Amino acid sequence: MARRDPRGSRASLLALLVLVVVLAACTAGANPTAQVAAEDGTLAGFWLGLWHGVIGPVTFVVSLFSDAVGIYEVHNNGAWYDLGFVLGLGFIVGGGSCGARSARS
Q1: Using an 8 Å Cβ cutoff, are 58 and 91 in contact?
Q2: Which of 60, 64, 56 is nearest to 86 (CA)?
Q3: Total structural domains within the chain
Q4: Are 81 and 89 in contact (CB under 8 A)?
Q5: Could you tell me which residues are beta bridge partners of residue 29?
Q6: Which long-range contacts (CB under 8 A, 24 or more apart) does 64-73 make?
Q7: Could you list the residue range(s) of the whole structural domain that residue 59 is in?
Q8: What is the rounded distance in angstroms from the CA atom of residue 78 to the CA atom of residue 44?
Q9: What is the average pLDDT across 16-32?
Q10: Is 105 exposed, middle or buried (0-12, 13-18, 19+ CB in 10 A)?
């Protein structure tokens, strides 16, 4: 029976620890303007989140060239806006269904 090299398992553990720390550093923070209306008194909800998700890819390209355009409305009502945004983006990007469909064919 071969013995395992303890240095190899330590290196693997260290690599895993570094990966976890790096991924944890990438997590999003709280949105301080959520649940706070914009200057005009509006608060983005589910339907506006859905629309922003649908136009997200185009908005992303435009935002690369303009500081006045953002891809996400920060003055939103929280989870409902987020749900609409993710669903809208999923409709356009295809979600997981397109990958599963192409893998079967």
Answers
A1: no
A2: 56
A3: 1
A4: no
A5: none
A6: 73/44, 73/48, 73/49
A7: 30-104
A8: 9
A9: 76
A10: exposed
d(CA 79, CA 104): 34
Tens of pLDDT, residues 52-97 = 899 999 999 998 998 888 888 888 888 898 999 999 999 888 766 6
Helix, strand, coil % in the chain, rounded to nearest 5: 60, 0, 40
CA distances (Å), 6 to each of 11, 16, 78, 80, in order? 9, 15, 48, 49
pTM for this prediction: 0.61
- d(C-alpha 35, C-alpha 81), whole Å: 11
Rg of the chain on CA atoms, in Å: 21
How much is the mean pLDDT over the chain? Answer: 79
- Rounded Cα distance between 101 and 12, Å, is 36
Please report the pLDDT score of residue 46 as a whole number. 92
